[in-house]
Amino acid sequence: MREQIDSGKQSAAAWAKRCYFAGRAVMDATLRPYDLGATQWYVLWHLANFGPTVQRDLGRALELERATLSGVVATLVRKRLIRQEASGEDQRQRLLSLTASGDVLWRELPDLTFIQQTAFGGIDDADLATTIRVLQAATERLQDLVQKEK
Amino acid sequence: MREQIDSGKQSAAAWAKRCYFAGRAVMDATLRPYDLGATQWYVLWHLANFGPTVQRDLGRALELERATLSGVVATLVRKRLIRQEASGEDQRQRLLSLTASGDVLWRELPDLTFIQQTAFGGIDDADLATTIRVLQAATERLQDLVQKEK
DNA sequence: CATGATTCGTTCGCTACCTAGCGAATATTG
DNA sequence: CAATATTCGCTAGGTAGCGAACGAATCATG
């Protein structure tokens, strides 16, 4: 929202938005041949790298709301790429794991780390650290604001 | 997506995402009593500050796709907060302006600039500038990547 | 041990984005 | 001037994310 750039504060927020959407656009374009969304890729990525995971833990790891993850998981189950089983200990929990075909697909998928490499590669380490620190601080303050609204 | 923090590069992208959604959450919470979404607010804001605007120009100013804006505009027209008229010069264009009730509502709305003030206030100017520069560079590189995919 | 609070996953309904494709209007070019 | 290309707004269909509300399971407390 370009006109909001009357001060650096608006500008920072606007660039955070643009950066997020630009990154997602690249992921979407890359994953299009595989009929996968960015979030679906993250789920497969986690299961491939960390093995079977309880849905709650997956949500916390990927920082997704239960409702959001629920929908993504349902989609992947429908595609038979992941499996959703009862967890032994807690009957409320669902244990997620890759199916055989999910594992096969995962091996075919391109490595997506090149996206961040392209985006932030060559940027000064100190500047990158500053950026992360500023965004982190802003996010925390915003989350506090939401809490206070309630 | 916290586990992606094996390098600052993933982390920066993840924080950009969180920052964007946190900001939107505050806007949504603030605007809830008025039954308005964040994007709807931006449209009203622009019309209140810049007067009647052609839909195409509004889309460019707010950096929204035609399709996205089309839906938002339809919603606001349905609420009778804005008006959509034929533009004199070009018969394809639609001129948008606040209705009387839209103007009344706008005056009631709280000032939302406090959100960015809260989020980025007190942060060192140089750090803020660095953040903007890094995000801007990353966004441009990502957009180039998308172009190449095509 | 019974009651109440919390947690987990689901569903519903919403906003906000996108791409693709359409028809109509306008610009460009041979 | 006719044919072609572009632009503008709309619609359809998709993903991503949220909050609220719900049943079932579990935990905490009197």
CATH class of the domain at 36-110 in chain A: Mainly Alpha
Termini Cα gap of chain A: 27 Å
CATH architecture of the domain at 36-110 in chain A: Orthogonal Bundle
Given helix and strand content, the structural type of chain A is mainly alpha
- Summed up, the helix count of chain A is 7
Search tags:
three-stranded antiparallel beta sheet; globular; 150 residues; homodimer; 7 helices
Question: What is the element layout, followed by pairings?
Answer:
The structure is a homodimer of 150-residue chains.
Chain A: H1 8-31, H2 38-50, E1 53-54, H3 55-62, H4 66-78, E2 82-86, E3 94-98, H5 100-108, H6 113-120, H7 125-149
Antiparallel strand pairs in A: 1-3, 2-3
The structure holds a DNA duplex (30 and 30 nucleotides).
Describe this structure in words.
2 copies of one chain form a homodimer. With 150 residues, chain A is mainly alpha-helical. Chain A has a domain at 36-110: Winged helix-like DNA-binding domain superfamily/Winged helix DNA-binding domain (Arc Repressor Mutant, subunit A, Orthogonal Bundle), CATH 1.10.10.10. The first copy, chain A, contains 7 helices and 3 strands, in the order H-H-E-H-H-E-E-H-H-H. In chain A, strands 1-3-2 form a 3-stranded antiparallel sheet. In chain A, a hairpin with a 7-residue loop joins strand 2 and strand 3. The model of chain A has no long low-confidence stretch (mean pLDDT 86). Chains A and B meet through helix 1, helix 2, helix 6 and helix 7 of A and helix 1, helix 2, helix 6 and helix 7 of B. The first copy, chain A, binds a DNA duplex (30 and 30 nucleotides) through residues 21, 24-25, 28, 37-40, 54-56, 64-75, 90-94.
